[in-house]
């Protein structure tokens, strides 16, 4: 021991230098150890101890490395060499019971700064827990490093919240497939032969005002307000066909836009006439007046019209050219259109149309154009601009009167379920085809020409009002019939 080698007098004469002070401290520690009873207790006390060690180091402006080596020998002590490098890193060593136990164990704290002091020290741990604070002071620069060892017990509580979300999906079943889609088979005459001659097609605007294109002798367009009984002439000159701006010649179809402008398919003048908000004077909107042709700015016997919901384009069944044309709604006379279906001559293949007549296009419901081939006795659907379509009703090129055949289909409409309604002209009936079905169900007419309330004769057009009541232009009987939705 250092205290046995140096007398008190010698100790008192040691220089008051850092080294001397350290040797005095070690000697005093040894003297205290000699007076301790070396009884060892085997009892292990489980104690949680938080030890705080503060070390103050002052170094000179010149980097100095001081090495102090002290060797202590004892038969009852386990000597452990500890190299302490002062840094700002804190290391906590925890045993299975305590941070510091009474059995022989060593707790080492390593700290490193820019000044490295390597010290070889023997530390003896007894049943008494001792906290040492060592201050080494030199001249000029003072670096103080405080190392705090903290043992923190963190209890983490995990809460699991289960949220149950119930999603209710309402599926509307197509009433056509349930066999519940029906209309009264007895028609009510809305316009009679004393008022119209041969109505080609019917159109309802958003207020349920009905417009009818009255071809043949009258060559005019009539308007019938909701619940009214007397029609109002809105275009053409009664029984005076012609090509002037106030005349029509065999009008086929009518469309009213959101600004109350009216468009009329003027078949034998090979043009589409536009009437601005109530005017009875038309301007040629599409085609060249009284000039049939196959150029992109010409039409040949235009039949039915369809306009997309955004009123961007108008689609026209160009019967004489066996094609469907698309024109911008901003068109004026002579504007070129685009062929979007057919155009490959008359025929019954899937790349051809055969006297296209009826036309329906509503992209919010389906991306297909639905087209009737009057002479082809069939119905096709065609993606606009595609080189071919597909047959979805009737037998191409073959007429018939059973549930799967047609005989000169004219007008066509679809509902929101994609059920299809077709005027079967020479079978004197209206056929309904449920979505994706090629078997028709007769909902108006009997299949035999007649003038009773349950019969039709050469029907030409059809439409639905906002209540889904069915209206049919009964051409051979010179009337418009209404069939109430059941």
TrEMBL record:
Keyword Repeat: yes
GO BP, sorted A to Z: proteasome-mediated ubiquitin-dependent protein catabolic process; protein polyubiquitination
Domain of life the protein comes from: Eukaryota
Record-linked InterPro entries: 6-blade_b-propeller_TolB-like, NHL_repeat, TRIM-NHL_E3_ligases
Regions that span the bilayer: none
Any one GO molecular function term: zinc ion binding
Matching Pfam families: NHL
Ranges in coiled-coil conformation: none
Protein name: NHL repeat containing protein
The organism of origin for this protein: Adineta steineri
Native organism taxonomy: Eukaryota, Metazoa, Spiralia, Gnathifera, Rotifera
């Amino acid at each position: 021991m250092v205290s046995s080698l140096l007398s008190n007098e010698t100790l008192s004469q040691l220089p008051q230098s850092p080294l001397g002070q350290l040797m005095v401290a070690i000697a005093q520690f040894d003297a205290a150890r000699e007076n301790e009873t070396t009884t060892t207790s085997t009892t292990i006390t489980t104690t949680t101890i938080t030890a705080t060690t503060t070390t103050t180091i002052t170094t000179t402006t010149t980097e100095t490395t001081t090495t102090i080596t002290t060797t202590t020998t004892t038969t009852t002590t386990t000597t452990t060499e500890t190299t302490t490098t002062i840094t700002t890193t804190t290391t906590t060593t925890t045993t299975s019971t305590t941070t510091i136990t009474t059995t022989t164990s060593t707790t080492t704290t390593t700290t490193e700064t820019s000044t490295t002091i390597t010290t070889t020290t023997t530390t003896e741990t007894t049943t008494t827990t001792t906290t040492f604070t060592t201050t080494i002071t030199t001249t000029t620069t003072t670096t103080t490093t405080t190392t705090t060892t903290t043992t923190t017990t963190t209890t983490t509580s995990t809460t699991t919240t289960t949220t149950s979300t119930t999603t209710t999906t309402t599926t509307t079943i197509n009433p056509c497939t349930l066999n519940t889609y029906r209309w009264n088979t007895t028609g009510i005459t809305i316009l009679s032969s004393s008022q119209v001659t041969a109505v080609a097609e019917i159109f309802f605007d958003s207020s349920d005002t009905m417009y009818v294109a009255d071809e043949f002798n009258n060559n005019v367009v009539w308007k019938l307000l909701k619940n009214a009984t007397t029609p109002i002439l809105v275009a053409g000159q009664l029984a005076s066909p012609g090509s002037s701006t106030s005349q029509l010649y065999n009008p086929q179809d009518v469309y009213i836009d959101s600004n109350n402008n009216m468009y009329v398919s003027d078949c034998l003048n090979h043009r589409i006439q536009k009437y601005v908000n109530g005017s009875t004077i038309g301007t040629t909107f599409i085609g060249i007046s009284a000039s049939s042709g196959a150029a992109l700015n010409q039409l040949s016997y235009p039949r039915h019209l369809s306009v997309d919901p955004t009123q961007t384009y108008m689609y026209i069944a160009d019967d004489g050219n066996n094609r469907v044309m698309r024109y911008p709604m901003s068109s004026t006379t002579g504007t070129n259109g685009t062929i979007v279906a057919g155009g490959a001559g008359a025929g019954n293949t899937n790349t051809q149309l055969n006297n296209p007549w009826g036309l329906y296009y509503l992209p919010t419901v389906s991306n297909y154009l639905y087209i009737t081939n009057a002479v082809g006795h069939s119905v096709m659907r065609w993606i606009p601009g595609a080189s071919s379509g597909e047959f979805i009703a009737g037998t191409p090129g073959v007429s018939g009167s059973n549930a799967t055949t047609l005989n000169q289909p004219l007008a066509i409409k679809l509902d929101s379920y994609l059920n299809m309604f077709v005027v079967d002209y020479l079978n004197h009936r209206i056929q309904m085809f449920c979505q994706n079905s090629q078997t028709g169900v007769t909902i108006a007419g009997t299949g035999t020409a007649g003038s009773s309330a349950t019969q039709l004769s050469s029907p030409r057009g059809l439409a639905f009002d906002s209540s889904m009541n069915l209206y049919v232009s009964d051409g051979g009987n010179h009337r418009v019939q209404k069939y109430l939705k059941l």
